[in-house]
């Protein structure tokens, strides 16, 4: 059986990874625009916006169920050229997410204040009120977020990340305009829109999410020959979606909750440290976008290879992915270490905040190579439906090797650099575990057949 040439493999990898990375980059740009505008109000506004976004990020545990469950099935069906089955999977999962989104919206709306109270001293008083104002509107974008997930999953599984990128470019441009108009207000001549502040940032988020969902639906509808929606509920596809997706959703929840806990740990060190950590996280997110792009490429290409019954091709793509992703992310990691202060200064100029941000960026910058190894190998596991193995590795490593040691350092009031150091150490240990699992081929025993 023939293999692809290096040039062909790189074209396929980067044609998926780069647009997908650009999509994530534009997502970060959308968040950063809101942060940049809100920073003009006060530090309390910026913290409230970040904490509110962290709350909404918990929803990604739910979207992960449908994204991974849909992507794994669609990539397999596409590899086998079973287009009718592909459309049935898309239609079934679109309807399910629509049904799930309504009660989810109600729960998210009711739980916002409890979450802000739980965050502790760093999020109280005016910051809490601002956070409630933001969450009071942004949760209404949940139905669009859920259905959009199915569209993105389907197109990504086909390797068609360019169309997603084109849509993201349109919505990002509109997001910048609407953020400015809603946050600061604008005189249109015939009427004047008053400044809506942090509420305006939430309103903009809702409008853009619905627009993006509508455009993605339209793109899929126009590609009827290969992908589309057959709106009939099928128990078979629902069971597979949940059996593959729920472990991924649990993993995403535990990972996101660990990030929320980390933010809570930072709040125990005061407003300067939590602000520095949030800024450092945003700077890191810009390069992580490309890491996520490589993960999407691994999911799609390994899943499609399995659909063709070509395990040798899956390994071939993985070896190439790991080499070139490591080189690219290693360079980007060094760059955020060297230019960390300058990049952080975009968001804040206080020395204490910049110092905390730099400490964080050094820890994550020097661990980008093992992190992208984790992304690629984890993406391969998701692409073949081996999400239970992914859950075991990620959950045990993050909670036992990162969160517990971090909690001990915070409890004993150790220097914040020790807390950031645990992120560095745990990333290398987890990458080693993934490498052993793949090198020994143990992961093949967890491949899901459907």
From TrEMBL:
Can you cite a GO biological process for this protein?
monoatomic ion transport
**Compartments, record wording:** Cell membrane
Q: Which UniProt keywords apply?
A: Antiport, Cell membrane, Ion transport, Membrane, Transmembrane, Transmembrane helix, Transport
Its protein name is Multidrug-efflux transporter
Q: Name one Pfam family in it.
A: MatE
Q: Which domain of life is it from?
A: Bacteria
Q: Show the GO cellular component annotation of the record.
A: plasma membrane
Which InterPro entries does this UniProt record tie to the protein? MATE_fam, MATE_MdtK, MdtK-like
Q: Which molecular function terms from Gene Ontology are attached?
A: antiporter activity; xenobiotic transmembrane transporter activity
Is Nucleus tagged as a keyword?
Answer: no
The UniProt entry lists membrane topology as: Multi-pass membrane protein
TM ranges are 51-72, 93-114, 134-158, 165-186, 198-221, 242-263, 283-302, 322-346, 358-377, 389-412, 418-438
Tagged with keyword Cell membrane: yes
């Amino acid at each position: 059986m023939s293999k692809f040439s290096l040039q062909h493999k790189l074209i396929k990898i980067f044609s998926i990874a780069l647009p997908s990375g650009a999509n994530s980059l534009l997502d970060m740009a959308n968040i950063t625009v809101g942060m940049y505008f809100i920073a003009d109000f006060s530090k309390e506004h910026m913290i409230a916006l970040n904490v509110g976004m962290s709350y909404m990020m918990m929803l990604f545990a739910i979207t992960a169920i449908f994204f991974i469950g849909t992507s794994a099935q669609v990539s397999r069906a596409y590899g086998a050229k079973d287009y009718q089955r592909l459309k049935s999977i898309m239609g079934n999962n679109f309807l399910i997410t629509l049904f799930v989104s309504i009660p989810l919206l109600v729960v998210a709306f009711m739980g916002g204040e409890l979450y802000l109270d739980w965050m502790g001293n760093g999020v109280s008083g005016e910051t809490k009120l601002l956070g409630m104002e933001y969450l009071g509107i942004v949760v209404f974008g949940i139905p669009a977020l859920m259905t959009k997930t199915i569209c993105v999953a389907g197109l990504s599984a086909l390797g068609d990340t360019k169309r997603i990128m084109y849509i993201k470019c349109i919505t990002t441009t509109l997001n910048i305009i609407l953020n400015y108009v809603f946050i600061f207000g604008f005189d249109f001549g015939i009427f004047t829109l008053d400044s809506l502040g942090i509420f305006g940032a939430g309103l903009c988020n809702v409008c853009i999410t619905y627009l993006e969902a509508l455009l993605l639906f339209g793109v899929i509808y126009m590609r009827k020959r290969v992908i589309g929606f057959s709106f009939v509920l099928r128990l078979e596809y629902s069971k597979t979606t949940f059996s593959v997706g729920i472990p991924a959703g649990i993993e995403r929840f535990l990972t996101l909750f660990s990030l929320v806990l980390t933010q809570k740990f930072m709040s125990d060190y005061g407003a300067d440290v939590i602000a520095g950590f949030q800024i450092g996280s945003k700077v890191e997110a810009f390069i992580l976008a490309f890491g996520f792009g490589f993960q999407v490429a691994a999911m799609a290409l390994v899943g499609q290879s399995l659909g063709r019954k070509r395990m040798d091709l899956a390994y071939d793509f993985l070896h190439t992915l790991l080499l070139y992703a490591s080189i690219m992310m290693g360079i980007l990691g060094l760059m955020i270490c060297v230019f960390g202060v300058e990049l952080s200064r975009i968001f804040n100029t206080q020395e204490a905040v910049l110092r905390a941000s730099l400490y964080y960026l050094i820890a994550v910058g020097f661990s980008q190579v093992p992190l992208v190894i984790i992304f690629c190998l984890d993406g391969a596991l998701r692409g073949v439906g081996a999400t239970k193995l992914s859950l075991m590795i990620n959950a045990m490593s993050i909670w036992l090797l990162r969160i517990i040691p971090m909690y001990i350092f915070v409890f004993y009031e150790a220097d914040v650099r020790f807390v950031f150091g645990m992120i560095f150490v745990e990333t290398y240990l987890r990458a080693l575990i993934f490498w052993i699992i793949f090198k020994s081929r143990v992961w093949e025993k967890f491949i899901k057949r459907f």
